Amino acid sequence: MRQVFTSDVPPVPWRNGGGLTRELLAWPSPQDWRCRLSVADIASDGPFSAFPGVVRHFVVLEGDGVVLDFADREREQRPGDAPLVFDGAAAPGCRLVGGPVRDLNLMIRGGRGALLPVEGAWQPPHRGLAGLFTRVSGTWCAGADVRALPAQTLLTAAPIGGTPWTFEPDAPTALPGWWFCHERIPEDTDS
Length: 191
Fold this sequence. Notes:
It is a single chain. The chain has no helices and 18 strands. It has about 190 residues and is mostly beta strands. A hairpin with a 4-residue loop joins strand 7 and strand 8. The model has no long low-confidence stretch (mean pLDDT about 90).
């Protein structure tokens, strides 16, 4: 188990200089990641950085929201919306709806991944990487393993057998956090 508090990770500028990001996870390594999870602060309008070969999952955590301008469409994202999944090479323009926002990004390069809202018990995959990002404080549980987690904390682990995970917020809320997973896809081999 690994726990990372967003507040403990120093922010660094985006590759294109348009915002700040806190990299909470770069797995298996920061130089050659397959799965990356970060929290970004966007203070002004501008384009996202391009990530060719990457599938991005994007949710707004705080603020009024953003409008993302893709080549063929616009998409508004506000807190509580389902994750927007898009090709990282698209690098949409970003307009703030009403002021600065904080967002959560899951990036997958190779394999498959998901970012899912916490809604009751969740069965992590039997292989790969699994985790929880908390929007609010609460208690995570997998069998006898119980942990109190503050808001905006990332908990990651190699999945724990067939034990379902739960997260109970300290106070009732519509969206307490997001489960995420990453699995490598076995390559076809000739025999």
